[in-house]
Amino acid sequence: FCPFVLQLHHLYSLYLIYTELPIFTPLLLERLTQVLDAERESPREFQPLPFHYIEISKLLFDHARDDITDAYLVRSLIEDIRDVRFHKVETGLETISGRTHAVKLKNLSAMEVNIVRPFMVRTLQAFYKHDSPQMIQQADNTGSRSTPVTDRGPRRDLRRR
Q1: For the chain, the helix, strand and coil percentages under 3-state DSSP, each to the nearest 5
Q2: Residues 79/84/85/87 CA torsion (nearest 10 deg)
Q3: What is the pTM of this model?
């Protein structure tokens, strides 16, 4: 019910990391390689990852690098996962056409959503602009050989002086 309940788990996890508990790198490496392989195998689906996995990994590498035994390998796996996911986002956005009614982006991270957001907003604005009735009327009027009529809206009554 309360949005703070879900965040307590993440705060507790970050607290445990901050208090220098050991990070089990072999389990982490195995899981990261599984995620990377699954991301490469399924070109249209995103694997479930923590919503802030990029930010959390940056915090870990900034503040707990000494506790990660194979920090270079872990970092390269996370960057590979990020690159594969960004490539999926780019190729998915290239397939958007005029017939697209909805876009399903399940299991995206916060950083990926923030990268996609400006493009999607501009795309939707362009679709709405070209789908508006005024644009359709203008296209019909310019297609015929009659003089173009502009829609100026309802007329106002003027005051007498």
Answers
A1: 65, 0, 35
A2: 120
A3: 0.63
- When computed from its CA atoms, the radius of gyration of the chain, rounded to whole angstroms, is 26
Per the structure block, which two tokens stand in for 2? 């309360």
Cα 56 from Cα 54, distance rounded (Å): 6
Whose tokens are 């996911």? That residue is: 85
Q: What is the pLDDT of residues 119-151, one digit of tens each?
A: 878 877 877 777 666 655 555 555 545 445 555
Q: Which two tokens stand for residue 123?
A: 């795309």
For 42, which DSSP code? -
Which secondary structure element, helix H or strand E, spans residue 28, and what is its range?
Answer: helix 25-41
Give the chain's domains with CATH numbers. 23-119 (1.20.58.1020)
Q: Please state, in angstroms and as integers, the Cα–Cα distance from residue 74 to each residue in 8, 18, 38, 104, 121, following that order.
A: 26, 18, 17, 29, 34
C-alpha count within 13 angstroms, C-beta hemisphere, residue 103? 21
Do you know the residue count of the chain?
Answer: 161
CB 126 within 8 A of CB 100: no
User: Using CA atoms in the order 53, 55, 60, 62, what is the torsion angle rounded to 10 degrees?
Assistant: 160
pLDDT tens-digit profile of 99-118? 766 777 789 999 988 888 88
